[in-house]
Specification:
The chain is an all-alpha fold and 141 residues long. It has one domain. 73% of the residues lie in helices and 0% in strands. The protein is built from four helices and no strands. The termini are far apart. Keywords: Coiled coil.
């Protein structure tokens, strides 16, 4: 991360790039165990076989460029994973909201049904015989 940040900010000092590379080697060695640590220390103490040239040339420049690309790839993979997680969370939230709307609709439909049933039970029913005779005069045609 340090090396990628250094390169992104325009850093190009071969000595600093070499130090960052050695730090990366030591970190990798620590992750792999003590056998790698001895090799990394030996490499860090040994003078460079090839004199330092401008960045991007020679083996050192290629190693630094490769490491920078690998770090950038990891960074992009992390961003991609974060985007996927956010998208899944939004989809889950949307499906939860739809589920809540369906439950609310079912509850309201059940309440409407209960109210209809209640009004039919409490409505006074009149027998049809009560209305056999017209109440008023017939309407003109």
């Amino acid at each position: 991360a340090l090396q990628a940040s250094y390169l992104r900010s325009g850093g190009c000092d071969p000595t600093i790039l070499d130090q960052l590379l050695h730090l990366q080697l030591e970190a990798t060695a620590l992750e792999k165990g003590t056998a790698g640590l001895h090799r990394a220390r030996h490499m860090a103490e040994a003078p460079p076989a090839v004199p330092a040239e401008t960045p991007g040339t020679g083996t050192h420049g290629l190693d630094a460029a490769l490491l920078a690309v690998e770090l950038e790839n990891r960074h992009l993979e992390d961003e991609l994973l974060a985007l996927k997680v956010r998208r899944e969370r939004r989809a889950d939230a949307g499906s939860r909201a739809a589920q809540q709307h369906r439950q609310e609709l079912a509850r309201l439909q059940a309440e409407v049904g209960m109210l209809r049933c209640h009004t039919e039970q409490t409505r006074p029913w009149l027998h049809p015989s009560v209305f056999t005779h017209p109440i008023g005069p017939p309407l003109p045609p």
